[in-house]
């Protein structure tokens, strides 16, 4: 078995994903690239090569706004990009037999710059400086990239149906796709903190988030040579900030519950997960908030009616929300559930004491989000 696995290693041994799979889960990661019109999309595929693990089908994991898909590789201690244990959301799914596809949207400039352009010889971006266009907007993400990734995963997995796990914006784009194309391949949809509309308070400080992520990118651009995927340094400023400031600054209560997240997790988010938001995408969300989602009542009415039609399909839905979430408020997640799938009494799960970010990577995320999501998918997979 080890001889067969070794044949798949074509990348430098200094990269975290190049280590040999270890028992008992034998988790493997490979770099895949989907074509979406004029661009290439990076998809990290994680799966178990263990012979005794059942094959449960493909799952796409899509991150939230201003983050990349490495969000799903943060473990319960704040470490990132490990493969030896099922201590992250992605690893937990893979260890249970799911084919996990981590979708890095085209706005994930730091992932493409620090990893794809440096290490992925089969990418069109190899040894090229990757920059996101300021014109990149919601249309690029929802109407170009999302359908392309779904089609790619269906072809790669040789499956007609798949599951989608979307955090925040990652779930909202799935809502959009399903409203337009109810016959799409998504059989099981899990959304985590994905509302019908964001709270206005979020975009009062989005400029500060973008300023921070821009600073974090400067150090990477200045470094020469290849860096291990798990060794990208934080800026001197972030490294020297005291722990109390990391968790208890003026912005933190809006982003997460400071008592439900570790200092190491926050530093990992700042150093490896957070992505600047393109200007056009910023403008889209500002307008989205001011207009309640759409500029015309006819459009929002049509959108809601399209979503209501999903009640008459054989698709399955599971909604997670944080009780302390100020960005994707519980009420807005309730609304999404009431519109899409109100008749299932068990498809709405609360994560107690969780804000928006710690809903997915907080101290209680493993028990209150990851494990329930995996068990739900296993049941739905058996039913189909």
Write the layout of secondary structure elements.
Elements: H1 2-6, E1 27-36, E2 39-48, E3 57-62, H2 89-95, E4 98-104, H3 109-119, H4 138-157, E5 162-167, H5 169-180, E6 186-192, H6 206-222, H7 236-240, H8 243-247, H9 252-255, H10 263-273, H11 279-290, H12 297-308, E7 316-322, H13 330-340, E8 348-351, H14 358-361, H15 365-383
Parallel strand pairs: 3-4, 3-5, 5-6, 6-7, 7-8
Antiparallel strand pairs: 1-2, 2-4
Helix pairs in contact: 4-5, 5-12
By CATH, the topology is: Rossmann fold
Helix percentage range: 40-55%
Distance between the termini: 30 Å
- Any idea of the CATH class? Alpha Beta
Number of domains: 1
The profile of the biggest β sheet is:
8 strands, mixed
From the spread of the alpha carbons, the general shape counts as globular
Query: What low-confidence regions span 5 or more consecutive residues with pLDDT below 50?
Result: 1-14, 222-236
Count of separate DSSP helical elements: 15
Across the major sheet, the strand order is 1-2-4-3-5-6-7-8
Order of helices and strands: HEEEHEHHEHEHHHHHHHEHEHH
Architecture per CATH nomenclature, i.e. the level-2 architecture: 3-Layer(aba) Sandwich
Helix-strand category: alpha/beta
Radius of gyration: 20 Å
Strand content: 5-15%
Name the average pLDDT: 84
Give the CATH H-level superfamily.
Answer: Alpha/Beta hydrolase fold, catalytic domain
Q: Count of DSSP E strands?
A: 8
Give me a quick take on this structure.
The protein has 384 residues and is an alpha/beta fold. 40% of the residues lie in helices and 15% in strands.
